[in-house]
Amino acid sequence: MKGLFKSKPKTPAEVVRQTRDLLVYADMNWNSRETKREEKMAELSKLIRELKSILYGNSESEPVTEACAQLTQEFFKENTLRLLIICLPKLNLEARKDATQVVANLQRQQVHSRLIASDHLEANKDLMDILISGYENMDIALHYGAMLRECIRHQSIARYVLESDHMKKFFDYIQLPNFDIASDASATFKELLTRHKSTVAEFLTKNYDWFFAEFNSKLLESANYITRRQAIKLLGDMLLDRSNSSVMMRYVSSKDNLRIMMNLLRESSKNIQIEAFHVFKLFAANQNKPPEIVSILIANRSKLLRFFSDFKMDKENEQFEADKAQVIKEIAALEPRDRP
Amino acid sequence: MGSCMYPVERGAYKLLSEIGSGVSAVVYKAQCLPLNSTVVAIKVIDLERSRPNLLDDVRRETKAMSLLSHPNILTAHCSFTVGRHLWVVMPYMAAGSLHSILSSSFPHGLPEPSIALLLKHTLLALHYLHAQGLLHRDIKASNILLDSNGSVKLADFGVSASIYEPLSSAATFSPFFNDLVGTPYWMAPEVIHSHVGYGFKADIWSFGITALELAHGRPPLSHLPPSKSLVIRITNRFRLNHDDHYHHHQYHYLDDEDAKKKNKKNKKKFSKGFKDMVASCLAQDPSKRPSAEKLLKHPFFKNCKSPDHLVRHVLQGLPVIEERLKESPSSVDGDDDDNNGSGGVTKIRRISGWNFNEDIFGLNPVFPCEKKEDPSPISSSFYSSSFLEGGGNDGDRKRDDHVKVREEENKKDDEIHEEGNDPGLLGWKSRTAETLVPGLISLLNSLSLEKEMVMNVLESCRGEGMGIGDWESKEEEREQRLVDMVGKLQRTVDGLTIQLKGESAKNAALEKELQGLKDKNLT
């Protein structure tokens, strides 16, 4: 009966404090004696697993709200999060995954009905810089990426990332040759550009010029199929969101943008064609088309009408058919306006 | 992580031969040129295939694979895109899947010591996955791979799910999922009735079915002809009276002499421990099934042989994968589903009751025994009325804990159905491989088609009423109304089931109280 002699179970706060101590050790003593270090790292992995089972529960028990609150409070009292993030590359795979899940869970824990993680991150925004740079290190990219996506659930943190220089780097990250990492980066990119409506609208308005220049040239005109496919889908999601209506009006008034859409409509990929159509229809439906848009549409009228007459979804879709009919009607009725 | 070693560009690999294919993926044997031409397997997935959430599935699969590390789990070296295809580079498992081993060399199942070893390693993988909060959701012989040195790896995370990563952003952590995934024969009842939600115990069920598959050479019930009408046929009352579908199968398909010998042999073949282990996995009530961890402690898995045993007893003399593929050119498994384009499918009957029969070491399905199902060829009008009688019957609904019926119709099917009623005409063995898989695929297809049709009806109900044009459209409309009805009934049934559960819980509480009062009275 080993259990009888077990010491009193640790409180959640104690588990956090011990974890922090070992993280400090791991951070400082990376060169100390091999066997001792291994022991400590094993102990650290065990503690992180313990944190996880307090937060998520385990096969025997559900998580207890009070224990979670205690843990959360202690965790954000000092710099445990920073230590955990910095030491992550030194952990083994299982401990990394546990740590990622712990950090993810903590973002949603409320203490006295406050998300204290948000306050903590506000005061430590540079942690986002560390997490984003993870996309440049294959070993930790997926772990940092998952943590990052949880952190940008907080609006103020998402705003920080959007307004930082990191935004520019995402255009490269989502085209990394490694599929898992590129996918993770595009998931984060999409989250940043769709989650917090008002923040996104503000960002797009303020940064319209460089953002869409990059978006068009690097993503929509990328040589990479998967990049184009994801980008056109994301563009549709952004432009069709009501909160971005002024950005949308601006986008559909540019003939360069129209040209890109028409090229995407000609792709051999059905998925890309369909998504491009959802953006193209906005150009056609715009009731205040600039003359240059009108003249492009008129110049290509017969080709477009022929194209749309054969353009079908694999599955019948009423909304799509209605949109298409509308687009055809608009284009057929166009009259040159620059020569009164 | 070994992933750094393998280059992420097409030019570094030389494709040698095709070793498997599904609807939207092909698996090749290949060489990685810069790494001394190491042999690898490359799964080439067409990302342009119609299923809209394929991309998400693929992401989930590759992510799951790259974050796992266990000797019994197949992980990817790396993955990258080539045009509209995704290349997933994996270790080459020279001996192929247990399914292909069964069908090429062990059509009547493997010897028990080998089964114990294979299952133990599979269970170790499952235990690891479950401890990670992951469900595999598609355990079966075709997803268990063997290397030439006897090492066992669980593969294919196309449908796996994580309890830590809820798919919806609603973000409640729940170990239950409501989407329907998996492959029909291996599916647990609570997966089929997905309104109940299911968790890790569904994997345990599939594990039990896989054990039977290894023991007999095929999953239970698979002797039923794998046409689209497959599921209906089991409801044929005549067949239901057979208590043993394995026995039944042999009775019909082999010579009498042979069958008797086989039966005798089969009945003695398996140990008590094995039967007991499988029985525990196949408990009706998921909560009664053991966890993977607990199952590992079962006596059946004590004294397992070393992987060497597999090399000597299973792998020796086995045709190489490419040869096996030539023999049966059908797909490796039914993992991909869309597009068979076989038009208006099908009668679907769901089985939800399964009774494990320890004597015959197989499953007995439970069906609605009084249901009026006429197996004769039927017109669509007949179909509609028979369905309404069946589904609208109150008695049936009450029994619905055991059975759900959903059907649609396809006239062509009836012919196959008729013909198939005389199983003696068909040699089972030769048919297994090439017909089983398409059967499964079409079954899965019909399920998704059915779902789609219900969705369509719901959508058109929201919109304006349908124009009543020519005759055909009327028929279509009627068919759709039926599907709609099916949906409604299904929901009603679900509602009633939930109510029933609530009532029985109440009942139990009251009985307990009563007992308490009685006890008090006595003392």
From TrEMBL, chain A:
Q: Which residues form a coiled coil?
A: none
Q: Which InterPro entries does the protein's record reference?
A: ARM-like (IPR011989), ARM-type_fold (IPR016024), Mo25 (IPR013878)
Pfam families the record matches: Mo25
According to UniProt, the name of this protein is: Putative MO25-like protein isoform X1
Family (UniProt): Belongs to the Mo25 family.
Q: Which PANTHER family match?
A: CALCIUM-BINDING PROTEIN 39-RELATED, OS07G0585100 PROTEIN
Spans traversing the lipid bilayer: none
Q: Name one GO molecular function term.
A: protein serine/threonine kinase activator activity
Domain of life of the source: Eukaryota
> Where does this protein come from, organism-wise?
Cinnamomum micranthum f. kanehirae
GO biological-process terms attached to the record: intracellular signal transduction
UniProtKB/TrEMBL annotation, chain B:
Report what the protein is called.
Serine/threonine-protein kinase BLUS1
Specify where the region named Disordered lies, as residue ranges: 325-346, 372-428
- UniProt record similarity statement: Belongs to the protein kinase superfamily. STE Ser/Thr protein kinase family. STE20 subfamily.
Tell me if Transferase is a UniProt keyword of this record: yes
Biased composition annotated in UniProt, kind: Basic and acidic residues? 394-420
Q: Where does ATP bind?
A: K43
Q: Does the keyword ATP-binding apply?
A: yes
Q: Which SMART domains match?
A: S_TKc
Q: Name one GO molecular function term.
A: ATP binding
Which residue stretches, if any, does this entry annotate as coiled coil? 493-520
Residue spans of biased composition, Low complexity class: 376-387
